[in-house]
Design a protein that fits this description.
The complex is a heterodimer of chains A (246) and B (219). Chain A is built from nine helices and ten strands. Chain A has 246 residues and is α/β, with parallel strands linked by helices. Chain A has one domain: Rossmann fold (3-Layer(aba) Sandwich), CATH 3.40.50. Chain A has a six-stranded mixed sheet with strand order 6-7-8-3-9-10, sandwiched between helices. In chain A, strands 2-1-4-5 form a four-stranded antiparallel sheet, with helices on one face. Chain B contains nine helices and no strands. In chain B, helix 6 packs across helix 7 and helix 7 packs antiparallel against helix 9. The chains are: A alpha/beta (246), B mainly alpha (219). Chains A and B meet through helix 2, helix 3 and helix 5 of A and helix 6 and helix 7 of B.
């Protein structure tokens, strides 16, 4: 079943066109890794899917319904599509628990006790039950990102967007975040993941998309795209990433 | 010459009345000035020109006209244009509040702008409306950063309250003038008024220093 359908998505900033017409279908339970050089438009694509950036043209269809451009429609979509950011973007004036509760209390209007119970559950899921009362300033990067994931999960998203979730982390902290994301994959959640972690994409994704110059350049199973790329640019990209592997 | 503070102390009840008047004017102008300042500051931050242009005009006008002129205008000119009396308290409150609103609007705007874009992103990604994001995420962080500047503004407002004496509003300076003219002791009377202000404001200023140090440490 198709949960997300994108047709002819174009994004321009002034005279510069970043995305030149992207078509994309996401089936329920799919895990799509989006790869591409910096500037290829992968983050922009992700941000257009929950309308953090307004597409300049094209159509986004969520669960059979075309998403409109009114504030009300955008808010409804964002509640159904969770997002995790490269820089975590935790709310520094709230504890870990407060961060995870915030959407439930302010957006969903749940009562405090209910939201608190749910938030505690999500923190436990990402292995941070003991950090509930800790403020972000006292968490490591990996812990911050896990709180951010719990914050997104608390809203019961039908689709999760990860925008380079480990790119801002020290290497030794990457694993704990990838493990959490893999556990979500194992639950059968639908997710799109912009990443530079090729190994992770290979093992966890069900499909890999390679973006270049604002277009889908090549896509297929991890084996097809990462092991046997058909196109020259995909090969060059993968080669540059593996330059120093051993 | 001999300093004669006894003649001032003999009128301490008049000074006390003045102090109450000063505090009343200060409280009114603090609430109105900062409250209106927040509204105007949000207008200055808004992308819509319907909010931005009036807010900007307001700030430009009141930052570039002297408070004393405004107070005198509200007291002497406005009653000619409108069918009701303006009390000295109302005129002084209007002048000082509007001026403070213009200055504090810039503090609010700057504070809100200083919050990283990622905070807006995270709030919107959860499905928050603009107002919810502002109230729950942006303002609580911005106000913390603005506190030293806002406290400085409060100190300014406190000192500006003396301008109320221009329309004979009963506050500390007005009472000092009264005591000086009755007892021919301007040195003692005005010195006392200055000392009272210093004693009240010095701790407040120390508080802003302390707050600035603490904020630096937190960040």
């Amino acid at each position: 079943m198709t949960i997300l359908r994108v047709r002819g998505l174009i994004k321009r900033y002034g005279a510069v066109e970043v995305l030149h017409g992207i078509d994309l279908d996401v089936e329920r339970g799919e895990r799509i890794a989006i790869l591409g050089a910096s500037g290829s438009g992968k983050s922009t694509l992700l941000r257009c899917l929950n309308f953090m950036e307004m597409p300049s043209a094209g159509e986004v269809v969520l669960d059979g319904e075309v998403v409109g451009r009114r504030e009300r429609d955008l808010i409804a979509v964002r509640q159904r599509v969770g997002m995790v950011f490269q820089q975590f973007n935790l709310f520094p004036h709230m504890t870990a628990l407060g961060n995870v509760m915030e959407g439930l209390v302010t957006v969903r209007r749940q009562n405090k006790a209910e939201a608190q119970a749910r938030a505690a559950k999500e923190l436990a899921r990402v292995g941070l039950a003991d950090k509930a009362q800790t403020y972000p300033a006292h968490l490591s990067g990996g812990q911050k990102q896990r709180v951010a994931i719990a914050r997104a999960l608390a809203m019961d998203p039908e689709l999760l967007l990860f925008d380079e979730p480990t790119s801002a982390l020290d290497p030794e902290l990457v694993g704990e975040v990838l493990n959490v994301i893999r556990s979500l994959a194992d639950e059968g959640r639908t997710m799109l993941l912009v990443t530079h972690e090729l190994g992770f994409a290979y093992h966890v994704a069900t499909r890999v998309i390679f973006l270049a110059d604002g277009l889908v350049h090549e896509q297929g199973t991890p084996d097809e795209v990462l092991k046997n790329p058909r196109k020259e640019r995909t090969r060059a990209f993968l080669a540059s990433h593996r330059q120093f592997s051993f | 010459m001999r300093w004669d503070f006894a003649s001032v102390l003999a009128n301490s009840d008049a000074l006390l009345v003045g102090l109450v008047g000063t505090l009343r004017l200060f409280a009114i102008c603090l609430v109105l000035g900062l409250g209106l300042g927040l509204v105007v500051g949000l207008g200055r931050y808004a992308r819509s020109r319907w909010f931005y242009l009036p807010a900007t005009a307001f700030v430009e006008f009141f930052r570039n006209t002297p408070v004393l002129v405004q107070i005198l205008w509200f007291y002497f000119a406005l009653p000619i244009l409108v069918p009701f009396e303006i009390s000295p308290l109302a005129a002084a409150s209007l002048g000082i509040s509007l001026n403070s609103a213009a200055f504090s609007a810039e503090i609010f705007r700057g504070g809100i702008q200083s919050i990283e874009r990622g905070q807006w992103d995270a709030a919107r990604a959860l499905g928050m409306r603009w107002g919810q994001a502002m109230r729950r995420i942006i303002l609580p962080q911005a106000i913390k950063r603005m506190l030293p500047a806002l406290t400085n503004r409060a100190i300014e407002i406190f000192k500006m309250s003396t301008l109320g004496s221009a329309v004979a509003y009963v506050e500390l300076l007005q009472q000092g003038k009264l005591i000086a003219s009755l007892n021919f002791n301007p040195i003692e009377a005005y010195t006392t008024v200055a000392v009272i202000f210093f004693v009240l404001l010095w701790p407040l200023l120390q508080f802003t220093y302390w707050m600035e140090r603490r904020l630096k440490r937190d960040e």
